[in-house]
């Protein structure tokens, strides 16, 4: 049996841009993606702490070292520059792999610079 667990979390990152007339997605600084273990085009859920919006999209690489977090396409209507959001990805994990499974939790400063990366396990 498989169970769904949190795989990655970018906690309280700040929106730095909104691009309505874009294909759609969430642009992230590659440092944030790497720290959270997110791949380009991977599905993520976005929880906007500022306005309560919740939506699913996918991530694309932004400019390295920029700290950028850009809501693109329809998602641009669900947030504004300065909003604090949580970005998460989930994984289906087989029961027999739970002992080795670890989620990555990434915490940032007010400029989306990585402050701390933690691992969590389901236990």
UniProtKB/TrEMBL annotation:
<keyword id="KW-0566">Pantothenate biosynthesis</keyword>
<dbReference type="InterPro" id="IPR003190">
    <property type="entry name" value="Asp_decarbox"/>
</dbReference>
<keyword id="KW-0704">Schiff base</keyword>
<dbReference type="InterPro" id="IPR009010">
    <property type="entry name" value="Asp_de-COase-like_dom_sf"/>
</dbReference>
<keyword id="KW-0210">Decarboxylase</keyword>
<keyword id="KW-0670">Pyruvate</keyword>
<keyword id="KW-0456">Lyase</keyword>
<protein>
    <recommendedName>
        <fullName>Aspartate 1-decarboxylase</fullName>
        <ecNumber>4.1.1.11</ecNumber>
    </recommendedName>
</protein>
<dbReference type="GO" id="GO:0006523">
    <property type="term" value="P:alanine biosynthetic process"/>
</dbReference>
<keyword id="KW-0865">Zymogen</keyword>
<dbReference type="GO" id="GO:0004068">
    <property type="term" value="F:aspartate 1-decarboxylase activity"/>
</dbReference>
<feature type="binding site">
    <location>
        <position position="57"/>
    </location>
    <ligand>
        <name>substrate</name>
    </ligand>
</feature>
<feature type="modified residue" description="Pyruvic acid (Ser)">
    <location>
        <position position="25"/>
    </location>
</feature>
<comment type="function">
    <text>Catalyzes the pyruvoyl-dependent decarboxylation of aspartate to produce beta-alanine.</text>
</comment>
<dbReference type="GO" id="GO:0015940">
    <property type="term" value="P:pantothenate biosynthetic process"/>
</dbReference>
<feature type="active site" description="Schiff-base intermediate with substrate; via pyruvic acid">
    <location>
        <position position="25"/>
    </location>
</feature>
<feature type="active site" description="Proton donor">
    <location>
        <position position="58"/>
    </location>
</feature>
<comment type="similarity">
    <text>Belongs to the PanD family.</text>
</comment>
<comment type="subunit">
    <text>Heterooctamer of four alpha and four beta subunits.</text>
</comment>
<comment type="pathway">
    <text>Cofactor biosynthesis; (R)-pantothenate biosynthesis; beta-alanine from L-aspartate: step 1/1.</text>
</comment>
<feature type="binding site">
    <location>
        <begin position="73"/>
        <end position="75"/>
    </location>
    <ligand>
        <name>substrate</name>
    </ligand>
</feature>
<dbReference type="GO" id="GO:0005829">
    <property type="term" value="C:cytosol"/>
</dbReference>
<keyword id="KW-0963">Cytoplasm</keyword>
<dbReference type="Pfam" id="PF02261">
    <property type="entry name" value="Asp_decarbox"/>
</dbReference>
<keyword id="KW-0068">Autocatalytic cleavage</keyword>
